[in-house]
Write a structure and sequence with these properties.
single chain, alpha+beta, SH3 type barrels, six-stranded antiparallel beta sheet, 6 strands
């Protein structure tokens, strides 16, 4: 398994599992990132944050720490 952080720009992946707990997991889920949803990686900042993704038609920015908690295939 790889994480969203390791996904290449321009790739569309399916969320398999959300790791983490409490407010961090809740924040990720509140963005609409849940198991089974497709995530398209638009852009990754060269020196770190953010990872920019498109989920359910919405453009979002994720912290790399959050992207690491999202397992994809």
């Amino acid at each position: 398994m790889k994480t969203l952080k390791e996904t290449s720009v321009g790739e569309t992946v399916k969320v398999v599992k959300l790791n983490g707990s409490g407010p961090v997991k809740r924040r990720i889920m509140d963005m609409g990132i849940t198991k089974g949803v497709d995530v398209f990686v638009r852009k990754v900042a060269p020196l770190g944050d953010p990872v920019e993704v498109t989920v359910r038609g919405y453009e979002l920015s994720l912290r790399k720490a959050d992207a690491e908690m999202i397992e994809v295939e």
